[in-house]
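Worked example 4.2. Below are the chains of a multi-component assembly; read each line carefully before continuing.
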Amino acid sequence: MKHTLALLLLVLMTSVACHKTQPPVTRPMPPPPPPPSDTVSLPPAPPAPVREPVPPEPLAADAVASRSLDDLNRDSPLQSVFFDYDSNELNDAGRAALNANAAVLKKYPAWTVTIEGHCDERGTPEYNLALGERRAVAARAYLLSLGIDTGRLRTVSYGSEFPFDPGHQETAWSRNRRAHFVITAK
Amino acid sequence: MMNSVRILIPAAAFAAGIGVIAAQAPAPQPEGPAPQQNDVSIAIKGDIGAPLHYAVPEFRALSPDPETAAAGKVLAEVLWNDLAYEREFDLIPRDTYRTIPQPQSANDVPFDRWRELGADGVVIGTVQRTGNTFHVEMRLYDVKGRSVALGKAYDNITLRNPRAGAHAMSDDIHDSQRGLRGVARTKLTFVSNRQNERLTGTVEKRDSKEVYVADYDGANQQRVTTNGRLNLSPSWSPDGRSIAYTSFMKIVPQILISNIYQGTLDIVTNDRNQAMLPVFSPDGSRVCFMSDRDGQFEIYTMSRDGSNVQRLTNHQSDDGSPTWSPTGTQVAFTSNRSGRPQIWIMDADGSNPRRITFNDSWADRATWSPAPYNEIAYAGQNGPGFDIKIYDVATGQTRVVTDGAGSNESPAFSPNGRHIAFTSTRAGEAQIYTMARDGKQLTKITSTGANTYPNWSR
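Applying the procedure described above to all two chains together yields the following structure tokens:
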């Protein structure tokens, strides 16, 4: 009985200490040890601070978190950001999309993302590689300003090599001038 | 220090690819037929100011098998095309001399018949099967002088590719008669999605793009890379035995060098930074490329093994698409430091940058001509599409070479500076074409899938 109490206290103290020194982690805390059968006479446990730092780890029931990477990317919760011709400037719609993406990334802190920069078919393929990179970097910089960790965001430019819409008119081009988000780990 | 990693590619991976070339052409001369004898070499002379007229009748088959007979036709046809390509001679249409008898020896060439036809030079050849190769002999006759101007024999011409023999003859004729380095044995490289393979690991529909090589005339198109990802901007080493290219094999683009006759792959850059658009220096020792390793895209050079990296540009703008001057002392590149992308020149250490294009809303992909021309071809835009333009470095004058049909981009000079390979959408999807430097002699090289990023071997 004394033994058990001491053990429980130790566990509690350790948990509190962990909580104080470490930022929220992305893994669930280890479950508390199973209560011994004779805990009836123990004083009620204090509101355990150990409950608080449980990270916003997606629950098994979370429809988004439980999907495979392929499924996630096929119907991605991360929105593309679109740009004007030969421009990497974010417009209002782009910033709104990035705000929403930042919220998703904060909800799922284990996700890492590749931001792909893309261009429409106009312009030259060589320079479009640089332009696509500027777009990816612009999206990345905005996400960093919203507090997303730099290590979670990688950029790559595909220039005009992978149009989303194969058409040859402005409706297609406007959809192809984009920063596209691919979830690469979760 | 060797920084690059060399990978031996298993032969099986190349069964349908470049291994075929390797088998056909062991080191160090890619196309085998070496001249066996070199008789005389006399330049045929015609009337001053008038072009010389050449005829190339079918080569006489000295072996009875159908392959040899077919080779006799191919050799004449390809040689005719090769000679016509440089426009040094007027080639008399082949169907006008089908009835002129093939001579059985050098003594019974029907010079009178050839003279009637207006020929100044006639190439008479024979082809003989020797085991698994052909032995070919060629004599260029001076019709007026009734003499041999050039005679050569060629061994080890493969049964699979007698065209290589015709290419060697064409280069010899241009060399002996005009002191001209022909391009008949040169090759093109480019990227294509023709294999119709979807990229794995993406949810959008994306086709892989692989590196291909072809003869200068578009024959013998063969795939080089097999990684199933995105590969761009292949660029020949000066010795024509290696191709540097951009590969997205590991998502972040890196520079690789494929040694196509050895079947080995050098991984030249391999880190978290993007490295793209490699071009070999004229002596082959260094590679110029663009990378985002210091933030935005800048231009760098490195040794061929990836060591000894030097930064050439340092500007809050994008600098890319580098090309070396023929002596390696200058680099032309694209920069948007003045707004839209334009062509700039700097010294090879990065000093003295100066802008050279001012009349285009967008200019990119400079490619510097070899000597004796001192020109920079680039893709420039004044209308909806791009045209190939040529800037004369000495005079500062620019001329437009394509005619506004489709969008014309990514020019690459032939090693003698007389031709340009480029991409055009004039017939729909992007295809590779070649043309003479005056815009004439348009030749379509590819037709399957979309084909881009042409580069011409030196």
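Take a moment to check your reading of the output against the notes. The interface with chain B takes residues 70, 73-74, 86, 114, 123-127, 129-131, 133-134, 137, 154, 156-158, 161-162, 164, 180, 182 of chain A (CB under 8 Å). The longest strand of chain A covers residues 178-185.
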